Amino acid sequence: MGGTKIAGALVDARGELLVRAQRPTPAREDGATVMDAVAGVLETLAASDDWARVRAVGIGSAGPVDASRGTVSPVNVPGWRGYPLVAEVARRVAGRPVTLVGDGVAMTAAEHWQGAARGRANALCMVVSTGVGGGLVLGGRLHTGPTGNAGHIGHISVDLDGDTCPCGARGCVERIASGPNIARRALDAGWRPGPDGDRSAAAVAAAARGGDAVALASFERAAQALAAGIAATATLVEIEVAVIGGGVAGAGEILFAPLRARLRDYATLSFAAGVEVLPARLGADAGLVGAAAAAAQDIGLWQVPEAP
Q: Does domain 116-280 have CATH number 3.30.420.40?
């Protein structure tokens, strides 16, 4: 569930997507209209012959979410504030259990089950895109926290006197490392788009590959913020690996090379220094696969994946 689209799938025990459904999110409409779109996705899935085999339903939603209450308040969907999404979905799925997690936690579940964190008992997985989200695997299990938001690394403060983040805090990882902030910082420092006028982080990455010093500096600053956040997490809960996905991760070594270098500056204690940084593997399907994995864990179907 996101501000642009509502996607659904039937996911089997191997993580394969058997049936898909998708509708645009009517993000500026009232809450009932948004729920009608969700219901339409569910109806498409329920029309499949495989629906009878469904054991549980998982929801990965843009946040904030509150799994303890079963509610969601996506920032980009103003008609949903404290909306009882779990109860509304449960009414439509014939008594099947429904699990709610944030979208970063869903991505984490997917990467642990089928992706770059497979076989790792302790991991941080991150989505670096328009925002910065994340989730944790601890002791071989998805660690959602009471409200389904544990591991939200984007709102760790890494610059105590930094800019105010939309969340209200100062110097958050997201305020420095998200795509829009990479582009904003480059523009403020004098970078200018090419003839196509593209002002996105992807355009900044392209300029960085071409050797543009301002573009490179903006990505290096983002990498520094991510490194500080990863090191803080490693120090707190002893992760083995940090997996990074999302649009900004598409910059490749323009992001990952300075990130690994700066991580050595921050993860200095022996138990944190060995954290491996890897790109995510599952791409756009991570939310769907991860929502299924979170639901499977909730009903006791989850098994710790073996290393490939």
A: yes
The domains of the chain are located at 5-105+285-298, 116-280
Interval 149-205: pLDDT, tens:
899 999 999 999 999 988 889 999 999 999 999 999 999 999 999 889 999 999 999
Query: How far is 241 from 112, CA to CA, in rounded Å?
Result: 11
Whole-prediction pTM: 0.88
218-230 per-residue burial string, b: 16 or more CB within 10 A, e: under 16: bbbbbbbbbbbbb
**Do the first three CATH levels of 5-105+285-298 and 116-280 match, i.e. the same topology?**
yes
Homologous superfamily of 5-105+285-298: ATPase, nucleotide binding domain (3.30.420.40)
- Residue pLDDT, tens place only, 103-125: 899 999 999 999 999 999 999 99
What is the pLDDT, as a whole number, of residue 245?
93
| Burial class of residue 57 (count of CB atoms within 10 Å of its CB; 0-12, 13-18, 19+) | buried
Contact 119, 100 (CB under 8 A): no
Residue 169 CA to residue 173 CA, distance in Å, equals: 11
Q: Please state, in angstroms and rounded to a whole number, the distance separating the CA atoms of residues 201 and 181.
A: 8
d(CA 134, CA 108): 7
